[in-house]
Amino acid sequence: MTDSQRGLDAKLAWRRGALALDVDFALPPRGITALFGPSGAGKTTCLRAIAGLERGAAGRVSFGDTVWQDDAHRAFLPAHRRRIGYVFQEASLFTHRSVAGNLEFGFRRAGRPAHLDRDGLIDEFGVRALLHRRVGALSGGERQRVAMVRALLADPCLLLFDEPLSALDALARSELLGCLERLHAKLSVPMVYVSHNIDEVARLADHLVLMDAGHVVAQGALQTTLTRLDLPPSLAGAMGAVIEGSVVGYEAHDQLIEVDFPGGRLWLPYRHEVVGQALRCRIGARDVVLATAPGGGSSALNDIHCRVVAMADADHPSQCLVQLDAGGCPLLARITRRSWHALALAPGKEVWAQVKAVAVGA
Amino acid sequence: MFSAQDLQALWLTLRLAATVTVLLLVLGMPLAWWLAHTHSRWRRPVAAVVALPLVLPPTVLGFYLLMLLGPEGAVGRLIAAAGLSALPFTFRGLVVASMLYSLPFVVQPLQNAFEAIGQRPLDVAATLGAGPLDRFCSIALPLALPGVVTATVLGFAHTVGEFGVVLMIGGNIPGQTRVMSMLIYDHVQAGEYHQAHVLSLCLLLVSFLALLAMSLLRPGRHPHD
């Protein structure tokens, strides 16, 4: 693996059916980058192009110091030599092989690298009991777990996950999200994670590439990108703050936990968290109400003191987006223009953000 | 029960069918793969040519082959110029003619099987580090196995049963080109109905057993797949 500070660089343009794609992004060499956007934005096609499976895509792709594709120099490294770990939307296991045979496929071709902890991965993803099963007898969640271990065992230098949870039921999805979070913590190779589920993205990603209609509309760190004011209306539902805090208390009587984050404190419903645990949560722009005075006469439990940074048009002419700063944490509120004027809000003004709902994971 | 000439014809027929089937599998595999994956504008014309023997009277095919391979034919002259003996009325000629005649019975099941696999498993294998030949051997071929079995059985059985092409290009030379179907015809012409019965029953059994084997060799259906 390369140790340079460059990750994946891609600049590609092509047509696929009615969609004209033109993407240009640079991803960091560590962490999970989410490729997020509405359905039909071209995310999957983009991922396939990175993998070298989309021969129509023209341009340049490089990873670290290795050039994967450069049409100006007629260079193209085929998919099987790019050392990628690809997990498809549907598990796509080989039906003529057992679970163990599937895992073995990439592991053997990678030369059974000694640095890969094969048994550890098998246990981590809970597939040990499935090893001798036929692929056809597995549930959707089991198949996807096998597909992930199979991809990891191919000793990839880049992981490409294409909506791996979208075909699963809620239980399997939350189980696998847990697996992916643990994987994230010790992952040494970068991952591109395609999703159209913002809660999934908020829980896993470090970086974000936002796509719409075949184009990259914004990219950068997760927190700052999702609180930008210049995103297209199709992404309105995703806008909001992602905060990282830790659980500092639990009140059994009210079944609430207390979460500390740089911008203040939040009370959230208890869901088996333990004190001391790190927690990521998302506060959607539509779930924030602004007030010019703290507390009082409201059922909203959470009241965060912050300062108005900027205001911009929202996806409807009656609404506006207000960017806030809570002790260094960016927050976003979507309120009516009438309220903006009625409260005489302006950049620099002190406000209290009342949070109606917080999403903790999926 | 079998006379010496019966056994000779039986042996010749099996040898012909086996040779033709093996050669067709080897040559038909790349052709079927190409037909299943190409976006070339030649795909449809080529597929139509491959399918021709399905609808063409075997005598027509045999007649053109005779013209083409004969000493005055274009291919025949080339063969003669290369210093090789002429193909008509030889076992080799019969092999060439039978291959053309049985081509669709081998290529079409293979093509259907390759198409049914789709691109996905091959893409997955590529991302797991398998090169093109590796993908063909470790993914496409095992997944297409039912199609390969069908192609083998149909190719073999169809070659065993041919008559018109053999009549035109093979003639009726004992030990060289006199296959079972020719011999049955001879027996009937000579009024030897008993021998004709025995041989016909033989072919009937071979055909039935081939089709039975085909369905038995197919991997069973699994309700969860």
From TrEMBL, chain A:
<dbReference type="GO" id="GO:0016020">
    <property type="term" value="C:membrane"/>
</dbReference>
<dbReference type="InterPro" id="IPR004606">
    <property type="entry name" value="Mop_domain"/>
</dbReference>
<keyword id="KW-0997">Cell inner membrane</keyword>
<keyword id="KW-0378">Hydrolase</keyword>
<dbReference type="GO" id="GO:0005524">
    <property type="term" value="F:ATP binding"/>
</dbReference>
<dbReference type="InterPro" id="IPR005116">
    <property type="entry name" value="Transp-assoc_OB_typ1"/>
</dbReference>
<dbReference type="InterPro" id="IPR017871">
    <property type="entry name" value="ABC_transporter-like_CS"/>
</dbReference>
<keyword id="KW-0547">Nucleotide-binding</keyword>
<feature type="domain" description="ABC transporter">
    <location>
        <begin position="5"/>
        <end position="238"/>
    </location>
</feature>
<dbReference type="InterPro" id="IPR008995">
    <property type="entry name" value="Mo/tungstate-bd_C_term_dom"/>
</dbReference>
<dbReference type="InterPro" id="IPR003439">
    <property type="entry name" value="ABC_transporter-like_ATP-bd"/>
</dbReference>
<dbReference type="InterPro" id="IPR050334">
    <property type="entry name" value="Molybdenum_import_ModC"/>
</dbReference>
<dbReference type="GO" id="GO:0140359">
    <property type="term" value="F:ABC-type transporter activity"/>
</dbReference>
<dbReference type="InterPro" id="IPR003593">
    <property type="entry name" value="AAA+_ATPase"/>
</dbReference>
<dbReference type="GO" id="GO:0016887">
    <property type="term" value="F:ATP hydrolysis activity"/>
</dbReference>
<keyword id="KW-0472">Membrane</keyword>
<keyword id="KW-1278">Translocase</keyword>
<feature type="domain" description="Mop">
    <location>
        <begin position="297"/>
        <end position="362"/>
    </location>
</feature>
<keyword id="KW-1003">Cell membrane</keyword>
<dbReference type="InterPro" id="IPR011868">
    <property type="entry name" value="ModC_ABC_ATP-bd"/>
</dbReference>
<keyword id="KW-0500">Molybdenum</keyword>
<dbReference type="Pfam" id="PF03459">
    <property type="entry name" value="TOBE"/>
</dbReference>
<keyword id="KW-0813">Transport</keyword>
<protein>
    <submittedName>
        <fullName>Molybdenum ABC transporter ATP-binding protein</fullName>
        <ecNumber>3.6.3.29</ecNumber>
    </submittedName>
</protein>
<dbReference type="Pfam" id="PF00005">
    <property type="entry name" value="ABC_tran"/>
</dbReference>
<dbReference type="GO" id="GO:0015098">
    <property type="term" value="F:molybdate ion transmembrane transporter activity"/>
</dbReference>
<keyword id="KW-0067">ATP-binding</keyword>
<dbReference type="InterPro" id="IPR027417">
    <property type="entry name" value="P-loop_NTPase"/>
</dbReference>
